[in-house]
Every structure is written in structure tokens, then in C-alpha cells.
Amino acid sequence: MDIDYMDGFRCFTFDNNRFADPKSMVDDLHSIGCKSIWMLDPGIKEEKGYFVYDGGSENDVWIKKADGSPFIGEVWPGDCVFPDFTSERIRTWWARLVRDFISNGVDGIWNDMNEPAMTTTTKTMPESNIHRGDADIGGVQNHSYYHNVYGMLMARSTYEGMVMYNTEKRPFVLTRAGFIGSQRYAATWTGDNLSNWEHLHMSLSMVLQLCEEVCRLALLRRYRLLPHIYTLFYVSHKKGTPVAAPLFFADPQDTELRKIETTFLLGPLLVCASTLPDKGAHECAHKLPNGIWLPFDFGDSHPDLPVLYLRGGAILPVGLPIQHVGEASLGDDLSLLVALDENGKAEGVLFEDAGDGYGFTQGDYLLTYYVAEVHSSVVSVKVLKTEGSLKRPKRNLNISILLGGGAMISSRGVDGEEVHFTMPSEFEVSSLVATSELDLKERLETIRPIPDMDEPSGQEGTELSKTLIVLKSGDWFLKIVPWIGGRIISMTHVPSDSQWLHSRIEIHGYEEYSGTEYRSAGCIEEYKIVRGHLEQSCVEESKVCLEGDIGGGLVLQRHISILTDNPKIVQIDSSIEARSVGPGSGGFSRLVCLRVRHTFTLLHPTEVVVAFTAINGSKQEISLDSGEVMLEGGLRPNGEWTLVDRCSGLSMVNRFDHRQVSKCLVHWGTSDLNMELWSDERPVSKDTPLRICHQYEVTQT
After folding, report:
1. Strands of 195-323, DSSP E
2. Which long-range contacts (CB under 8 A, 24 or more apart) does 677-683 make?
3. Which of the two ends of the chain, N or C, has the fewest CB atoms closer than 10 A to its terminal CB?
4. Residues in CB range of 470: below 8 A, 6 or more apart
5. CB neighbour list of residue 550: distance below 8 Å, 6 or more residues apart
6. Where in the chain is the domain with CATH 2.70.98.10?
7. HEC per residue, 580-595
8. Which CATH number fits domain 211-446: 3.30.465.10, 3.10.450.50, 2.60.40.1180, 1.10.600.10?
9. Distance (Å, whole) CA 71 – CA 65
């Protein structure tokens, strides 16, 4: 659950309309085997009457500025204050909030924006801010001293709050920011990324445009490997070894392995992926470490799934294909995949316990060491030794010996008892391997891989999507970046030399969204240039058309122009259009809402108002102390609203067709102002797009 579950992005709250009864919702999720992880950010909205802000102020928990007053920074709720997690007293205050929050049925928490990150141009808080840290970690210091550990200390406090609520349950905490030692409190996620091939290469492939079939195969494969992965986490807990390791861990002396970024180790299991847009993992040449590495699958090979290898000398425990962990029990059939080494031997380990709680610390677990060995062509597989007081469940044991090329021979027995079976002759092995390789080749040839995203052709494509566009004509000078949501990052009125929009490339300026959530699709997609003169590295034009794919067969198209018949006016005509809506939908898309959001830079915030005549005829003025105002129904502006700067004597008039706009939003920041136009929320078809056409003009006040 991202921050949209909150009431106005206020941490530890729920939106009363969309999440009226979170406990019942979570109970429903549990009934189908799902867990719920809820986001908490460190930024607390500065708002009297909000219980977290009031309680934090009373307990003096906020990070201070150099002058001793609370530091205020802008994040998703607007102006925010930040807990000083360097103090144990303040971590305890936060932990108690977490404890109470968990009572709503929360299964886990993910901490975001905890570098700490801001939405302002500085991206984080000033180094001069003051932390009142405990003496044992450095005492009172400025922010530069504690910056790198802030996220870890927040995760620690969140972890401790979950323990407060239930000492018998293991906390699940996910953190974006961490430091050495943060693995004691939380897992780490790598933050947001863009849906382009450059970012995809930094992760693993098969994420973009997944189809249902390969998703199911990947999920079932992961659940089958869960006994092994769970064992790796236990070993990591005891010895500190990484669960997932880079390939060179298998042979540190081979320096070539250090260059490989698409292959990794899960213990003795080697996972080879492809992040190339036009090649499946089975088509890539994979460099393997020295030794025996035998390929295998679960009858699920697919061009868009990784290739799996098991190291010779290893035994891999494998579970049943389940839909969620609630379906599994210790009495389920257990499978062992065996890869013999050059001496005909193999060994492996399996850790089992209740799956939650801390009984394992008191010996309530079962750690089984399995061994396999060949004597006179007969393979014996048995339990070498065990640890823990948990009784071995009565269950069937399925054993498969890997032969190479994906071929294997199998036998069945009872777990805990010794199992024997005869190895095939060398001729039979060769025949089995050849047959398996042929079957795999034929199977992969019949499977259609996930289609790659269409690459724009010619100059109106790859090169120009990375080109800064300059619109320059009449009274206006605009800068547009197609590669980050087509954002307008600068809008300068030439006669008055006034700059009304200004942003970093990553945030603010002029943005558009395709949903009611703050950062819904439409703000981060790479836009293609559809029309415009495109010969120059910095395009100068009076008009341009941009188009971005927002998924589900939908595109967000934007025509930006300085009107030739009235060069005092900038016009932006935006629409969400259905291009290829999926079958079975009746030709209609998912619910979408076109949102136009412009962030105006304010040089004189206290001297600025938003003025308009409402549809109901009333005269309205909205000033800085109004905070956030949503205008609906008869309170909407009747076709235009004006940003008036009384100090400079200038006004920015924004005109629109009020029939295309269902809501208008005004949100004041410390030095800027967000003004938003919202369309209706509805599905669209090829014949019924959503559209908002609006204009800007600067006038004398």
C-alpha cells in the first residue's frame, strides 16, 4: 500500500472513503493468502490538530534548524517536519505509533523517502540541520554527520514498534535507505525506476510488459524454490553470508566473473538471466564458474525466464507448486534435486520451523543435512544428521538426479529413510541428455516471447526523445524535456522577463497524470516527439506534439503551441486516448482521470492570490494561509482563474473549458503553488477520449 491509503498523505492515518475499514480489508486479503505491507514516510505534515504532529511537537521530537526551530521541508503532504531518529527517546516515540498502527491488521511496513528525501530542488535536508543524537553514537551533530544512518535508524524504530505489538511475530520491514547493519531490522528495496531498457539492465529482465503466462510460471518457480530460499535466509542469519551473491563468489580467482551482471547465485543455485531486449536467457552465452554446473527446470522453460543451473556436489530442496505460503505445510511432499560432483557425491541442507515467531531460538526447528553418493552405479540418498527439537514430519520424498542437458532420473521414498536407485549406463545417459536437449529446443521454439516495446524509427525517435525542446515565439520562451514525462521545466514571459514555471527535470514544472493518485502514470514515461521540425540538437519551434504510452493500450498526448494569431498566448491541448484496448473490455479502458498539474514559482508568496469568478457567480480569492483547497461543482472557476502577484503587478491567467474540468485543486508550498485541473474519472474508448484544452496569458494587474 503506497501513500494513497492515507488521509492526505498523513502518516498513521487512513483515507475514510477508500479505506474505511482497513482491518476488514486485511482480513479479506488474509483469506486468500495475501499479506498487506503499508508505507510510512518520515515526513510528518505540519498541521495543528493532526495527532502525530501535535504529539511530536509536545514531545520535542523534530529535527532542528541551526537556530533551534523545527526544520520544515516539503514532501508529499506539503510542509513537513521530521523525527530525529538519532535519539533513542524519539525512536521509542515513533515505535509506539507503529505499535498502535499495527493493530489495524498491518502485516508489514515499508519505509520510503528516508534518505531523507525532499521534493524540493535540494532533494534532502540542509547539512546545517541539528540532530540531538545519543552520546553513544556521536551526540549532538549536524545533519552531514548522521545523514547516511538516518534511514537505518528509522527502519530500526519501525522494527522495534512491530516487536512492541507482538513479541511472538517476526517483523517485516522494507526500507529504501540503509547502512551497514540495517539488515538486522529491514530488507532493502532499490527505489523507483523508469520503464526503459537502460533502467531495466540495472535490474533483471522480464519485468516490462509481462504476460500472464510467464508471470504464473515465474511465481510457481519461486514458490517451488521457497524451501531452499528460506534455508538460505537461516544460514545468513547464523553466519552473515548473503542470500543472493554475485557470480564471482563461486570462484573468486576468476576475474572475468566479476564483469558479469546478469547472473547471480542463490547458494549452489545459479540463475542466468537476460536483460537484452531481443534475446532470451537461453539464447545468451553464459560464462560459468569452474566445476560442474547442470541445467534444470520444472518443465517450465520459457524465453523470458532465467536459465537455472545447480552446482555439482549440491542437493537442492524443492517444495510443491503453491499459490501462497498459507497452502503449504511441513507434511507436504518434499523433492530433492541432486547434482553429483566428479567423485559421485553431493550434500545439501534444509531448515524448517513454524515459519514465524522466535521458537527457533529455543531449538524448535529441524535442520536436516542430506547426502548422496554413488557406489557401483547405485545412488544412495540419506539423512546424514539433524539439529533441533522439531519432529520430522511423515512425508514422501521425491529425488531427482540431474544428468545434464536438463535430463534427470527420479525415484521416490520416505523422508528420513535411505533411498537407493541405479544409475543408467553412459550410453543411456547420453541418449537421455540428447532427447532432453531436443525437447527443450523444440519447446522454446514454439513459445512466443514477450514482445519488446516498439522503438521509434528514424530521427523522430530515439535521438529526439533525448532532445531538449525550446518553444520560442511571440511573448514566450518554453523549455520541454520529452524523456521525463514531457515535462515543461521553464516558462518565461519575455516582455516582463518573468519566469512562471521552473523545475528540476525530475519534479515540478508542468506535469500531467492519468489517475487521481498523486504520482499516477503519465509523469515518468518517456514521450516521443510526434510532430515538429527535428533537425537541431536543441529544437526551436512554435509548436510541438508529444505522446507517451501510459499502459493498457492508452496514450497521453499533448499539443503545446504558441498561437500564431495571438502570440501572447500559450495553448496546451492534452488528451488520454485509447489506441489498443484489450479484448473483452467492450472497447473501453480502465478508469482514468486526466490531471493537469502546474507548479508556479513564487517570488512573493505572501503577496500572491488565486482569484476567479466561480460558476455559481461568487467572487473567490485563495491565499497562502488557505493551505490546500479542492473546488468542485458550482465552486469551480467559470472558465478561468488568475494567479495574481500584487508585488510585481503581473498576473498569469489560465483559461479552460469548464465543461472539460470536474475539479480544480490549489495547494500552497513554501515558495511555490500547485494549480491542478481534473477531468472526470471514467473509462475511455477510441471514440471517447478525455481532453483538457487550456491557455496561459500574462497580463498587468
Report:
1. 245-246, 263-266, 269-272, 293-296, 307-311, 314-318
2. 677/595, 677/596, 678/516, 678/593, 678/594, 678/595, 679/593, 679/594, 679/595, 680/593, 681/515, 681/516, 681/591, 681/592, 681/593, 682/591, 682/592, 682/593, 683/588, 683/589, 683/590, 683/591, 683/592
3. C
4. 477, 478, 479, 480, 538, 539, 540, 541
5. 514, 521, 522, 525, 556, 576
6. 469-531+540-700
7. CCCCCCCCCCCCEEEE
8. 2.60.40.1180
9. 5
Helix axes 88-102, 51-58, angle to 10 degrees: 150
- CA distance linking residue 616 with residue 453, whole number of Å: 48
* HSE-CB for 423 with a 13 A CA cutoff: 22
pLDDT at 209: 37
- The residue whose grid cell reads 489506441 is 579
Question: For residue 462, what pLDDT is reported?
Answer: 38
- Residues 460, 465, 467, 471, Cα dihedral to 10°: 80
Q: Which residues of 288-314 are buried (b: 16+ CB within 10 A; e: fewer)?
A: bbeebbbbbbeebbbbbbbbbbbbbbb
- In this prediction, residue 457 carries a pLDDT of 36
| Cα radius of gyration rounded to whole Å, the chain | 30
The gap from C-alpha 587 to its chain's centroid, in whole angstroms, comes to 30
522: left (phi > 0), else alpha (psi -120 to 50), else beta?
left
Three-state secondary-structure class, residue 530: strand
* Every domain range in the chain assigned CATH 3.20.20.80: 3-188
From 404, 410, 409, 267, select the one nearest 349 (Cα to Cα): 267
Q: What is the mean pLDDT of each run of 10 residues along the chain (701 residues)?
A: 92 92 93 93 96 97 95 91 97 97 94 87 85 95 94 96 94 91 85 57 44 81 95 93 91 91 90 75 86 93 90 96 88 96 96 94 96 94 96 95 94 95 92 91 76 40 57 86 71 83 61 66 46 40 79 84 90 87 61 86 83 95 87 94 89 93 87 87 87 91 74
Is-contact 64 71, C-beta < 8 A?
yes
* Report field, pTM of the whole predicted structure over 0.70: no
- Which helix (DSSP H) or strand (DSSP E) does residue 620 occupy? strand 619-623
Measure the CA–CA gap between 658 and 636, rounded to whole angstroms.
8
Please, how many CA atoms are within 13 Å of residue 609, restricted to the half-sphere of its CB? 10
Q: What is the CATH number of domain 469-531+540-700?
A: 2.70.98.10
End-to-end CA distance of the chain: 45
Homologous superfamily of the 3-188 domain (CATH): Glycosidases (3.20.20.80)
Contact 309, 320 (CB under 8 A): no
Which amino acid is residue 515, in one-letter code?
A: G
